[in-house]
Amino acid sequence: MDIKTRLAIAQKSGIASAGKTNLIKHLQGERLTQRQAIHAKCCDCMGYNADGRMDCRMPHCSLYPWMSFRDDRAERKRADLARRSGPTGP
Q1: pTM, two decimal places
Q2: Is the per-residue pLDDT at 86 higher than 70?
């Protein structure tokens, strides 16, 4: 599918979201930040319906570790903080 066709589909499909906005920017040739590119790819992969607020549950995806709303993201952050702060207690 050519870029013009993909752009037309992206513009009329799905819901309004940061991912969709970033995907359209990318298809128009604009440069994206790393975070914007991740959101754009997630939106593209999820059929333009990724509002960034649900877990796609695709752990095999290379971008999955950086997905903003993974179900286990809050728990992983707590574990990372605990690991970085070192042992606690006497």
Answers
A1: 0.72
A2: no
